[in-house]
Amino acid sequence: MAKVEIYTTPTCPYCHAAKSLLQRKGIAYEETDVSRDPKLREAMTQRAGGRRTVPQIFIDGQHFGGSDDLHALDRQGRLDGLLGLTA
């Protein structure tokens, strides 16, 4: 299985949508709440190539963007392979 990291805030509907997709697929993820710590948000922004919005999603250390990007990968049939779900 791939290592999935997701930067979130508690009230973000896109964060909830991304986490819900991962949960439906049975994927564990490491969540970092950046809502109360400017240093964590800055670290996320640097890792995400300047993107400041949440969620920001990393799979095996590679940045894949936000919730819309994650759902697009799923629609394209590419997400399962990235997550290590294919045989």
UniProtKB/TrEMBL annotation:
GO CC, any one term: cytoplasm
Keyword hit for Thylakoid: no
Glutaredoxin domain mapped to chain residues: 4-64
Any one GO biological process: cellular response to oxidative stress
Domain of life of the organism encoding this protein: Bacteria
Keywords assigned: Cytoplasm, Disulfide bond, Electron transport, Redox-active center, Transport
Gene3D superfamilies, per database record: Glutaredoxin
Pfam families for the chain: Glutaredoxin (PF00462)
An annotated Gene Ontology molecular function: glutathione disulfide oxidoreductase activity
InterPro entries for this protein: GLR_AS, Glutaredoxin, Glutaredoxin_subgr, GRX_bact, Thioredoxin-like_sf
SUPFAM superfamilies in the record: Thioredoxin-like
Described purpose of this protein according to its UniProt entry: Has a glutathione-disulfide oxidoreductase activity in the presence of NADPH and glutathione reductase. Reduces low molecular weight disulfides and proteins.
Family, similarity comment: Belongs to the glutaredoxin family.
Record PANTHER family: GLUTAREDOXIN 2 (PTHR45694), GLUTAREDOXIN-1-RELATED (PTHR45694:SF18)
Name of this protein: Glutaredoxin
Organism: Paracoccus kondratievae
Taxonomic lineage: Bacteria, Pseudomonadati, Pseudomonadota, Alphaproteobacteria, Rhodobacterales
